[in-house]
Amino acid sequence: MLMSLSKVMLDVAAMDPKGLAGFGAGLAIGLGALGTSLGIGLAAGRALEGAARQPEMFSKLQTLLLISIVFMESIAIYAMVVSLLLIFTF
Asked: CA end-to-end span of the chain, whole Å?
């Protein structure tokens, strides 16, 4: 088991840097998009739940939801920038 793990690590270290950069770029954008979509889904669900419980708070909840969605989308944009930097700098 330990022998095969070290062999895999040596194989990864011997790979082309462009391949590793592409793998890292895919991982960055994939995890960034996954986290952002989960966050937006949870936030929207909670906002709808809160609006259903207290309809008079809908305008405040809508404002807070839109602000939080903007911040979550900025994380996805950062992930995209990191992936583009990884792709085009190596």
From this structure: 33
pLDDT means per 10 residues, the chain with 90 residues, are 59 72 90 96 96 95 95 95 91
Helices (H), the chain: 2-13, 17-53, 58-89
Q: Residue 19: what pLDDT?
A: 81
Specify the fold of 19-89. Answer: F1FO ATP Synthase (1.20.20)
Tell me how far apart the alpha carbons of residues 61 and 67 are, in angstroms, rounded to a whole number.
10
Give CA–CA dist 17/90, Å, rounded: 7
Kindly report whether the global pTM for this prediction surpasses the value 0.90.
Answer: no
Question: Which two three-digit tokens encode residue 44?
Answer: 């929207």
The number of C-alpha atoms within 13 Å of 24 and in the hemisphere containing its C-beta is: 18
